[in-house]
Write a structure and sequence with these properties.
Blueprint lengths: L5 E7 L2 H8 L5 E9 L8 H5 L6 E8 L6 H11 L7 E2 L2 E2 L5 E5 L2 H17 L7 E4 L3 E3 L7 H4 L4 H17 L7
Parallel strand pairs: 6-7
Antiparallel strand pairs: 1-3, 1-6, 2-3, 2-8, 4-5
Helix pairs in contact: 1-3, 1-6, 3-4
């Protein structure tokens, strides 16, 4: 199947961190922060933060597979978050901060399973990233979109997000936008 555009939904802690990195990847046309695979429709940030809705904070990435492959996007994913910590990334704790790859096709699942196995081979602790079908996606509130780009000096952005962006730039410069 020839696709000029594809979409993958990823959870790896706070969506601001993932969004900030993926907005810099060549071939990515959009990154939308949101909430996935929970039990209620159209949740608010406050509801998700309680940990009682079942949603994960995610980014939905639209990309051109001719410019960047799903494999490359997933390699970035495993570089910029810790897939071995259950329901947490750093000081962000709760089920909403879990690690997850949410797919809509068997081909995506196969690529994700392969990249997860490769990540596991490099790690001592078990990878706890869930690999599931995308059951629901709800965009986050407007103020969450492009958060790092709009607030680079904000405390969380400066101390948590910026180091992840720098790690991506140092390690995977070949994938950066021109």
């Amino acid at each position: 199947m020839d696709r000029s555009s594809d979409t993958i939904t990823l959870a790896g802690g706070c969506f601001w961190c993932l969004e900030a990195v993926y907005e810099q990847v060549r071939g990515v046309s959009s990154v939308l922060s949101g909430y996935a695979n929970g039990q209620i429709d159209s949740p608010s940030y406050e509801q998700v933060c309680t940990g009682r809705t079942g949603h994960a904070e995610v980014v939905q990435i639209r990309f051109d597979p001719a410019q960047v492959s799903l494999r490359e996007l997933l390699e970035v994913f495993f570089l910029i978050h810790d897939p071995t910590t259950l329901n947490r990334q750093g000081n962000d704790v709760g089920t909403q901060y879990r690690s997850g790859i949410y797919v809509d096709r068997d081909e995506q699942r196969a690529v994700a399973a392969e990249v997860m196995a490769e990540a596991q081979a490099q790690l001592t602790d078990p990878v706890v990233t869930e690999l599931e079908p995308l059951r629901s996606f709800w965009p986050a509130e407007a103020y969450h979109q492009h958060y790092f780009a709009n607030h680079p000096g904000q405390g969380y952005c400066a101390f948590v997000v910026a180091p992840k962006v720098e790690k991506f730039r140092r390690t995977m410069a070949r994938l950066m936008r021109d």
